[in-house]
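Blinded run. Sample ID left blank on purpose so nobody reads anything into the name before looking at the predicted structure. Input follows.
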Amino acid sequence: MSDVIQLDGHIWHWCDMSYGQNKALCLDLQDSCRVNVNLLLLAQYLDITLDVAGPREYSVEQWQRLVVAVNEWDEKFLTPYRRLRRLVKASLNEDEYQQMLNVELMIERKAQRTILKIINGLSPNGRQTNLVSYLSLFGLGEGDVKQLGLIAP
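Blinded prediction complete.
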């Protein structure tokens, strides 16, 4: 079990706020690099927050473990649903489309519970920022991370 205070669901409220300020960038990384937005925002959160134990930097291998767990869920549920939502968008009125977005958000929140379960069982052992470690899995380096310009809420 991790020596740091366990992360809980309140971080997703923070991530929702960050997503609101970084939506275009998050969606671009999701579509162009296949980055998981939940993990991207979690990495950002971990990099800018501290708890009594200090920084929580997870290694590339630990981020890979999170990616594998989330990809399994996404491939079965989120990706097919998102594809369907995008396909039918032109055929739906605004309320129907919003209902589909709400279901997608519910699916994302289920993935968030999986992420928290796994990360709470890890002891941070990274040597670089979480954004750098996570995004390196997609071929992005430290320079790319600096250029992203994620805005903190």
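Unblinding after everyone has recorded impressions. The CA atoms of residues 39 and 67 lie 8 Å apart.
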